[in-house]
Write a structure and sequence with these properties.
8 strands, mainly alpha, 3-stranded antiparallel β-sheet
Length: 380
């Protein structure tokens, strides 16, 4: 990559030099001295342009990575000139030979070392390590930190977002339940929730699980649908929250579906996995481990689908916004960048709903495959 960039710079300098010499050669009245000065100036400007472009690209890449990651504080915006960050800190909860509770403001966004009860901690790439008073971080051969890490139970930005959405869900469904006590027709915000709940019941739960068994799983399906949907919508706000783009969150959601599916499965489900009916015995022995592996690939597809789509949407939007700061022609770049960002944001609103719907639909499909009754013809 370095060699390629050097060759590109040399090629740019050569083309610039050739163009200037060609223009100057056509003018007979110009002197040799006057032809050398513009060449040097143009070459210097070209090199500075490439260096500034690379520096801006690195800053934007770092900003996008920071937006996608979880953090121990909320930062609304930062002032590079003064080095000040505007936001608020979150509580840090560590277990290191005892409970350590303090504010993440002690880290000052990773610039300072936090001293708590004689122990020193440093925030490095979003993780907390034990260190000394100078904040020394040691590395292995692969440049990975080797410092000890205490157990981290901190209230991070993603945790605050999930708690907020959980409170919203509790308030929404409690209000809907109370409105049904007044009459068969809900009032207030319940009029918006009822069509969505009926949609999940009639288009997702009943077709995939069946009319006899769907009610048992409606609570989970409604919870996971509204939980993912609200988190996706919250991630599109200027707060910079990327909860469902965190692989740990999608793994937990997929594990919930996996556990519910396996513990709800009947004997026909396990019989089709370990001893498939109507198949020769040698093939049963071969297919059993494949079918067992298939039970693990289903939740894996759930978590990857949700994680990849949400993360890709955030990266595209942040990259389009970055066009405003990378380009030098503000009058031309600003309208294009804003138009594309608005277009992708509208699509992201649709994706936010679709990902919640697809996760819920696939979860109900996997549960339905595990609880459905199989009727085999008996041959005498």
């Amino acid at each position: 990559m370095v060699i390629f960039k050097n060759r590109l710079r040399l090629l740019s300098l050569f083309c610039t030099l050739l163009a200037v010499l060609t223009v100057q050669a056509q003018s007979v009245n110009d002197s040799i001295a006057s032809t050398e000065t513009p060449v040097v100036a143009t070459a210097t400007e070209e090199v500075e342009h490439h260096e500034n472009h690379e520096e801006g690209g690195n800053k934007i890449t770092a900003f996008i990575e920071h937006h996608l990651q979880d953090s121990h504080d909320f930062t609304f915006f930062s002032d590079e000139a003064t080095g000040k960050h505007y936001g608020f800190s979150l509580p840090v909860i560590l277990w290191d030979n005892g409970l350590k509770v303090f504010s993440s403001g002690k880290f000052h966004h990773g610039e300072n070392v936090a001293e708590v009860d004689g122990n020193y901690y440093k925030l490095y790439h979003g993780k907390i390590y034990k260190t000394d008073a100078e904040g020394t971080i040691t590395y292995d051969d692969h440049h990975h930190p080797t410092n000890a890490k205490p157990l981290d139970f901190s209230i991070t930005k993603n945790v605050v977002s999930m708690l907020l959405v959980s409170i919203m869900l509790l308030f929404m469904f409690t209000s809907l339940a109370k409105s049904y006590k007044k009459g068969p027709i809900p009032t207030g915000f319940g009029r918006i929730l009822e069509p969505l709940i009926i949609f999940i019941r009639d288009e997702v739960a009943i077709p995939n699980i069946g009319e006899k068994k769907y009610r048992k799983y409606m609570g989970y399906l409604l919870t996971v649908f509204f939980f993912i949907w609200l988190l996706n919508l919250l991630g599109m706000t200027p707060l910079g929250i990327n909860v469902t783009g965190n692989i740990a969150i999608t793994v937990c959601l997929a594990l919930f579906t996996y556990v519910i599916t396996q513990f709800s499965a009947n004997k026909d489900y396990w019989g089709h996995i370990f001893w498939m009916p109507g198949v020769p015995i040698p093939m049963k022995i071969i297919l059993a481990p494949i079918e067992l592996l298939g039970t693990l690939t289903k939740p894996f597809a759930l978590l990857v689908r949700l994680y990849a789509n949400i993360t890709a949407g955030h990266v595209v939007i942040m990259s389009l916004i970055a066009m405003i700061f990378v380009g030098k022609n503000l009058a031309a770049d600003l309208p294009i960048s804003l138009a594309l960002t608005l277009f992708i944001s509208v699509i992201e609103l649709l994706v936010a709903f679709l990902q919640a719907f697809i996760f819920t639909m696939l979860s109900s499909l996997f549960i339905g495959m595990a609880v459905q009754d199989h009727h085999h013809e008996e041959h005498h």
